[in-house]
């Protein structure tokens, strides 16, 4: 019965049915759930960097250089950082979280109208997304760029919020790609000219309360098949990044956005910037909302061939990856998603 409910009403449907135990299909081995943290962390820096973007757009070149230096350090050592004073209004952040919550708390009959029955749909609801690796969450995807949806393709519950938030994400993405280009020691427009900002899609998750949070995961460990990912999370928490072989919490910071390097960025920077594995733990008490925006053309038609940026290469730093198109990479990535291995390693020379 639990299996049948899950396939028709998602994880939220199970929780609404007042279950007291996590169905076996969601169980994850305890060895995988372990945080793998040492007893003594005094000699380790296990705090995800927080970077203030407030001074970047001022005329003070030295202030911008300080921010670029911090981003360079975070991208090289962590692959993750949080940004504050990023220019996205707090009201916009709150509206998109509320819009995602409203959609996922709609009647299943309403949500199921948006199931993936048509490959051309720009808005897709997934209540059994990982059918071979079940996770404690429901999700929807909205493809924003380069071919944005018509407003009426987006559910009323989140329509205005999705449209408004995506505008701000594109603007912030523009700035971040400039800063990352400078952090590579290159012209600020290099990553833009490579069309890193061209593709964008949103993946909006709803993690219902879990009666036995120590038995399952919201998302298993994985890297992102993107150039860059921007994540907005609510104040519940649960996101962790694998840093120096330890699962480190990425704590919610009010008004902040999480930035993480994706596989394509690691490839084109020839391992200078790192795409690290991350996962999501679930909790017993309340639902968690997160909105992930991926700068990637994913499976969209795109014949551009990507490889390590030539300006970064030398006799001492030869190319470490083969050239590949994003659709080719993504097809294999999705076929091997959550298998416990980094798909990027398949393309090492």
From TrEMBL:
Q: Per its record, what are the GO molecular function terms? A: dioxygenase activity; metal ion binding
Q: Which domain of life is it from?
A: Eukaryota
The protein's required cofactor(s) are namely:
Fe cation
Residue intervals of the Fe2OG dioxygenase domain: 198-297
Q: Keywords for this entry?
A: Iron, Metal-binding, Oxidoreductase
Q: What InterPro entries does the database record attribute to this sequence?
A: DIOX_N (IPR026992), IPNS-like_FE2OG_OXY (IPR044861), IPNS-like_sf (IPR027443), Oxoglu/Fe-dep_dioxygenase_dom (IPR005123)
Does Flavoprotein appear among the keywords?
no
Q: Which SUPFAM superfamilies does this UniProt record tie to the protein?
A: Clavaminate synthase-like
UniProt lists the family membership as follows:
Belongs to the iron/ascorbate-dependent oxidoreductase family.
Q: Which PANTHER family match?
A: 1-AMINOCYCLOPROPANE-1-CARBOXYLATE OXIDASE HOMOLOG 10-RELATED (PTHR10209:SF473), OXIDOREDUCTASE, 2OG-FE II OXYGENASE FAMILY PROTEIN (PTHR10209)
What is the name of the protein in this document?
Answer: Fe2OG dioxygenase domain-containing protein
**Species this protein is from:** Capsella rubella
